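Problem: given the chain below (218 residues), write out its structure.
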Amino acid sequence: MGYRVLMPMGNVCCGLTWHSTGQLDMTRKTLRQTLDVMEPLLEAGYPIIGLEPSCTVMLQHDITELLPDDPRAHKVQALTVTLGEFSAKHAEDGGHWPFGTLETQAGPGQALCQVHCHEQSMGNYSPELKVLEKLGVNSNVVGGGCCGLAGNWGFEPGHYEVSQTLGERELFPSIRAAQPGTIVLADGFSCRTQIAQGTGAEGVHLAQVMRAAIRPEK
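Solution.
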């Protein structure tokens, strides 16, 4: 799309691993280390594209609750967007769009979308749907909520049956009933893991769908 992509110049982490288990002091320490690494990028005002929904929500919402007095945290919050948000706005602004439309075994691109819990509750999935529409993909959003894995929760002792029951509410049956060639779209790593283990299907990220739609440059 005409951008030069930069990666942070060191190890960074949103701190979710500790946040989700209540280790807030460690979360703050981790976030401060991340802010130290990213400070030059923040000063430059570069947009931050989050690819993992749970991490993205941490940077869009929780970071300023954890570090309210650090101005860098507020910069991160203001600059962080999902890939869908960034790409949809780029297209709306008339930016270079090097993508064609997708065709699958199921005909014109068909996608079954499992929206990550954090994105469902704190974010907005409509930009992702706009991007898919622009790629010629007809999207069907799974309405059953959580995939059932929820980070490491489904792997913990005593949680497996509940985890699988959640998956079987709508997600697993929808995948099994989908036409051959239907894209199973799940931006969350946990969701893709649950899908693979529960159905044998391979979930993909929006970035992978966009890459598959890139047209050769003439």
